[in-house]
Design a protein that fits this description.
The complex is a heterodimer. Chain A is α+β, with helices and mostly antiparallel strands. Chain A is built from 14 helices and 8 strands. Classes of the chains: A alpha+beta, B alpha/beta. Chains A and B meet through helix 1, helix 8, strand 6, strand 7 and strand 8 of A and strand 3 and helix 3 of B.
Chain lengths: 381, 168
């Protein structure tokens, strides 16, 4: 919000405000985004985000390419966690046309989405360490991420932009021996989280950099529309998978980790970090249950090639790795969507940074961006 | 509270400025007159039992044949775990809707996005600038009759087809 801030030193005399430019090409801004920092010495008065560098008009493209054709574009909304975007789009179209996905298809979706969530959180927490100067843990996180990407590659042939889901189900069934492979990987991955915590999360320097920095209390997080791990980091016990269940998440037993201010105040940067770490544990629990309980049957419903959902509009919410993604999709009964709007987790997280940055040190801005796990293409779409 | 109860509470307070409860094929929604949107939102946020502390989404869509642009507010209450959709119609020739930024700060950016892509003016907004597109972009891309400019600062926005391009 445009609030003019008077800059005064300790004697009440006006000092000169310095305007710094951070980005758009900066190693720790997670993509191409820019901050205009108004600073008084080392202390920020404001950090004004300037977004749009990665705007690819994905919502406009949706109106031009038709319902089936938009699926590969959803990968590009958040390319770090493309499965979630696939799922959001598929679910919106399915709800409009009242299509029921076969149960095996839903299980495949959950397996893919949870693998993708672990993948995304690994990059998030790894990059967070790197942004704060801990380079090595990043390589550990990327090592694990590579293995999960191998698993996903086996599933859909792609490592980043998966294009795995379809309206009505998923494109391919699990390959031969996949359940064993993923179970085997989970056995390997389980101790890695603890190792990662020892390496990074409980490291004293790391904790000091994050604890009590940029605290967001629960009311503020809700009013500013923070979602997902950022919201739970502030102590709000809410997860779309559990509270507005979709797909087959009702079948699974899992906890929702929330921040509790273990290292400082509830809602600080460290809480947002630890929520992501614990969510990987919960994703593993879901994965194990899904792998054990996957039913036989088809993976995709019969959906006409000439897909024309009836007139109407729908809001679909899914729990993406970067928080609740809200899809507003409106159909005018034609073969092209009338309007698609995606409210992503990073968008609202970016919106709060101007407010959070006031009074922080410049070096903390990097910690704030990293702890919010902002991915620039998801902000700009 | 279900949507019928929420609608009854709104009707009790705002009478006919709040439209009928439209069941809709998927989720119930309430049409609200633009002039009272801020008061309605404040009421929904503060009234006990409603407590919509969160603006979950704010979208807009262009309906040229109806001569209007519609803003769609999706509200959620973390405390009561219920949701409601509000619709506000604006005249397409000069769409103006009062801002709800004072009710939920999250609306600041969401309104800027709609201003940027659909050209709705949110009156009273403290910082209504384009957010995704450059400041000097011409037109509102998500309007149905949008025509892209042939170039932007001398950069062509048209690409010759790779199939017909002549090679040197």
């Amino acid at each position: 919000m445009s609030v003019e801030l008077e800059v005064h030193d300790s004697q009440g005399l006006a000092t000169e405000e310095m305007t710094l430019n951070m980005g758009p090409q900066h190693p720790s801004t997670h993509g191409v985004l820019r901050f205009i920092v108004k600073a008084d010495g080392e202390v920020m008065r404001r950090a004004i985000p300037d977004i749009g560098y990665l705007h690819r008009s994905i919502e406009k493209i949706a109106e031009k390419v038709g319902w089936h054709g938009f699926m590969p574009y959803t990968d590009r909304v958040d390319y770090v966690a493309a499965m979630a975007c696939n799922q959001g789009w598929a679910m919106a179209a399915e709800r409009l046309a009242d299509i029921e996905v076969p149960r095996r298809g839903e299980y495949c979706r959950v397996i893919a989405a949870e693998l993708s969530r672990i993948c995304s959180h690994l990059l998030g927490v790894g990059a967070m360490g790197m942004d704060l100067g801990a380079i090595t843990p990043f390589t550990h996180a990327i090592r694990e991420r590579e293995m999960i990407m191998d698993l996903i590659e086996e599933l859909c042939g792609a490592r980043l932009t998966f294009n795995y889901m379809r309206i009505g189900g998923v494109a391919w069934d699990l390959p031969h021996g996949y359940v064993e492979k993923v179970s085997h990987y989970l056995d390997h991955f389980e101790p890695v989280i603890e190792e990662f915590n020892q390496l990074l999360g409980l490291n004293r320097i790391y904790v000091k950099r994050l604890a009590d920095v940029a605290t967001v209390d629960a009311d503020m997080a809700i009013a500013w529309g923070l979602v997902g791990p950022n919201l739970r980091g502030s102590g709000v016990d809410f997860d779309v998978r559990r509270d507005i269940p979709y797909s087959v998440y009702e079948d699974f037993d899992f906890d929702v980790p929330v921040g509790s201010g273990e290292m400082g105040t509830t809602g600080d940067c460290w809480d947002r970090y630890i929520v992501r770490i614990r969510e990987m544990d919960e994703s593993m629990r879901i994965l194990r249950q899904a792998l054990a309980g996957i039913p036989e049957g088809p993976v995709i419903a019969r959906v006409p090639r000439n897909f024309k959902p009836p007139v109407g509009d729908v809001h679909v919410k899914i729990e993406a790795p970067r928080g609740e993604q809200s899809w507003y999709v409106s159909s005018d009964g034609s073969e092209y969507p009338h309007r698609v709007h995606i409210r992503t987790g990073s968008f609202t997280a970016m919106g709060i940074i101007d407010r959070l940055s006031r009074g922080l040190m410049i070096a903390d801005l990097v910690a704030v961006i990293a702890s919010m796990d902002i991915v620039a293409p998801e902000v700009d779409r | 509270m279900d949507s019928t109860g929420i609608h009854a509470a709104l009707r009790g307070r705002f009478d006919t400025a709040v439209g009928e409860l439209a069941p809709g094929p998927f989720e119930a929604s309430i049409e609200v007159d633009a002039s009272v949107i801020e008061a309605v939102c404040t009421f929904l946020r503060d009234e006990e039992g409603l407590e919509f502390a969160n603006l979950s989404n704010l979208s807009g869509a262009d309906y040229p044949e109806l001569e209007r642009i519609q803003a769609v507010y999706s509200l959620f209450s973390y405390k009561q775990r219920h949701s409601i959709t509000l619709r506000v119609n604006a005249d397409r020739a000069a769409p103006v809707i009062p801002t709800v930024e004072a009710v939920w700060p999250a609306a600041n950016w969401l309104e800027r996005e709609i201003f940027d892509l659909l050209g709705v003016e949110f009156s009273g907004h403290c910082d209504l600038r384009r957010i995704l597109l450059p400041e000097d972009w011409v037109g509102y891309p998500l309007r149905k009759d949008y025509e892209e400019q042939p170039d932007y600062h001398g950069i062509s926005t048209v690409r010759e087809s790779l199939l017909t391009m002549k090679r040197d």
